[in-house]
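Mods, move this if it's the wrong board.
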Amino acid sequence: MKSKASPRVKVISILPHCSGAHPYFGRGTVVPHSSILRIRSKSLVRGILLSVGAFLLALRLAGFPSIQNLHGSPWEFAALATAAWGMAETARCLQRRWSLYHAGVLILLWADMMILAAIVAMLTLS
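Not the wrong board. Structure tokens:
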């Protein structure tokens, strides 16, 4: 009888080159399958990583380490679009009913809005 794996768990074989798995390891090893790389599923971590990564990229593109050489870059529009995508990913995680999770997502949306405002300020002021 075959066992069914849950949709969030992926079973892989440790020895893929062999026709049968090693008897010690059984049929395979259970590896958790993250939703970060699956675009169709909601992922709060993906939204946070996109927003923070876009902010760090925008800082670097503006010449952040040296204060005397702050300048604008046309590539900061890509960072702005990535931050907006991160905010949209975070907004997808909102729930219909109020809970502490919902409150945390609202705080993250506020932080994403501040990141967007900082990137726009770096675009216009530099």
